[in-house]
Amino acid sequence: MAEQDNEQAGEALLQNARRTLREQPRRAIAGLCVVLLLGLLTAALASSLQRVSADDVCADAVAGAVKPMALSGSYAVDGGEERPYAARQALDAKGIGVEAVTVRGTLENDVAAGELVNMRLSSTACTVRVNGETVFSFDGIGDSEPAGEPLLGWIGFRSPGISTRDEVEIALSSAASYSVLGDYVIVLDSLCTGEPDALFVASVASHLPMFVSGILVLIAGLILLLIASVGYLIGVPKETGGLRFAFYVLIGGVWIFFCFDYITLLIPFPAFTTTVSLLAQDVLALLQLSFIASRATGYPRRLATLLLAALSLMLGVCIVLRLAGVASLYEANVVIIPLFVIGVFFAALALAVEARESRDRMAVDATLVVIPCTIGSVVEGLSFLFGGVTTGLWLCAGILCAVVVRFVALFSYARSQIVQAERAHRMEAELLQSRIAVMLSQIQLHFLFNALNTIEYLCEEDPPVAARATNDFARYLRGNMDSLMGSQMVSFRNELEHLAHYVAIEQLRYPSIKVEYDVRADDFLVPSLSVQPLVENAIKHGASRRAGEGVVKVSSWREGRSFVVRVTDNGPGFDERSIARFKEGVDVGIPDNRPPGEAPARNHVGLANVAARVAATCGGTMRVENEAGGGASVTMTVPCEEEGGSR
C-alpha cells in the first residue's frame, strides 16, 4: 500500500513537472538552474569535508600573535637560474603561464616545534622541505572530486622546529591549467606563524575595507530586496527589474564577503567557499544582464536577452560538467569570465546609448546604476585573468555607487508619489467641494425663488409667520454656507437641525405635507448636505403628488458596524426605469404626474449625485426602492464612525 502511494505521488510530481515545462518554460528552466546550483554547492561541501579537514584551515581558539616568516635566499622560476630573494620582494618573471616557483633560504627567526605555520594558497601546490626533508606537502586541490576545485584560502601545518641555521625550501607549482605569477606571490607574502583565531583577526584587520564593504552590500541588498518585493507585489511600475537588481546586490555582497584572505578561517570548508565565490562571480553577470533587459527597450533589450540566454546556457553546461567530474568550475571560469565581461560591457553600452538618445527617465536611472557595476566587473575580470586574483574593491565600489543611485531614485520616486497623492487628494477634495457648490446652486435656482415669493406674500398676509419663515430661511442659508466652507463630514444632529429649517419653509408651500421623525441614533457623522436632498426628493416627487395628506418619514438607527438613515414617503413611488438608472449612476426623480410647468426631475438635486458623494466621502452606500404598501424609500448606510471619531 505504501509503495502504491509512493508511485502515485511520484507520478503526480512528474505530471506537474511536465505541465510546468509545457505551460511555463521560463519557470521550469529557472527551477532546473536552481537545482543544479544547489546540487553543485552540496557536492562541493561534501567533498571538502573529505579532502581538507577543518583542522587544516581553521582550529579552535588559541591565543597568540601572528608573526610573519621572513625567508631570504634565492628563487628560481620554472627551473631556471636562481636569483637573489629577500622576503616579500617582487619576482622577476612573466605574468601569465608560470608553472613553478622555488624559493630556498633561511628564516630570520626560529619557528618552535608545534607552532602553526600558515600560508594562503591560490590554486597552487606546495611542498616545504627543511634541510632536504619534506615536512609538508599539499597538491593544491581542495576536494576529492575528479574535477576538484583548487584550494583558494589558508592552510597550515605544525612546525617540526625550524632554526635560523636550517635551509628551508618552498616549492610551489600550479594546481590548475591556468597560472599566473600573482598566485605564487600570494603564497610567499602570506607566510606566517600563529593560531587561526589570531590569524583571522589579523586577516580581517588587514582587509577591513573588504570585510565591512561585504557586510554593507549584503545589508543594502536585503533592504532593496524588501523594497522591491513590496513594490512588485503591489504592482509599482518603477520596480520593473527592482527584484533583479536587489538579487544582484545580494550576490555581490556574498562575493565580496567571501574574500579568500579570511573566509576559510571563518568557514573551514575551502571547496565550498571556492564554489560559492566562483558561482557568485558568474551569476552576477547574469543578473546584471537580466536587469538591463528589464529596463531597456528595442535593440538593447534584444541584445541583453540574447546574451543572457547564451551565457546562462554556457554556465549551465559548466555546472553539469563540474558535477560529472569533467572540468572544475575554476578551469571553466578562465574561459567564460572573458565572455561574461564582454557581454556585460556591450549590453551596458547599448543601454547607455539608448538612454542618451531617448532621454527616458527609467533608462537613464538604469544606466546610472549599470555603469559603475560594469566598470567594476571589467576591472575585476581583467584582474582575475592577468593577476590570478580579484581585489574585490573595484566591484564593491561599483555596487555601492549603484546602490546609492538606486536609493536616490527610489527616494525621488517615493517623494513624487507622495506629491501626486497629495495633489490627487487635494483635487478630489476640490472636486467634491465643487459638486457641493453645484448642488447648492441647483437648490438656490428653484428653492430661493419660491421661498422669497412665499415670504413676500406672508409679509402682507401674516407678518408673524413671515418673521418665523425669514428666520428659518436665514438659518437654512447659513447652514448651506457652513457646509460648503466646513468639513465634509458633519454630525447627524446638525444635519437634522438644518433639515428642520428646510422643512419649515417647504411646509409653507405644501401645508398638507407632514414630516415625521423616528430618530433612534444621532451621535454619528454623515456627509454634509446628504439628508436634506433625500427629503427634498421625497417631498417634491413623492408626498406632494399624493391626493390628500402626504407623509415623509425620516428614520435613523444603528445596525452592526454601520448607521442607517432612511427617508420614506407615501407618494407614487419610483418606476422600474428610474431605479435601474439610479443603479447605473444616473440622477433620477419621479417623472410621473408632474404638474404643468414644473422643471424636469433631472434639474433637481439627483439621488445618484448624493450617492456618489456619500461613497466618495465616507465609503457609504445608498439604495432606492418602492415600499410594499405604496410609496418609496431611500436608504443611506454610513460606516460606524461616531462624533468622537471612534470606529
TrEMBL record:
GO terms for molecular function: kinase activity. It holds the Pfam family His_kinase. The chain crosses the membrane at residues 28-49, 210-233, 245-265, 271-291, 303-323, 335-354, 366-386, 392-413. Residues 534-642 form the Histidine kinase domain. Keywords: Kinase, Membrane, Transferase, Transmembrane, Transmembrane helix. PANTHER family: SENSOR HISTIDINE KINASE YPDA. This is Histidine kinase domain-containing protein. It comes from Eggerthella lenta.
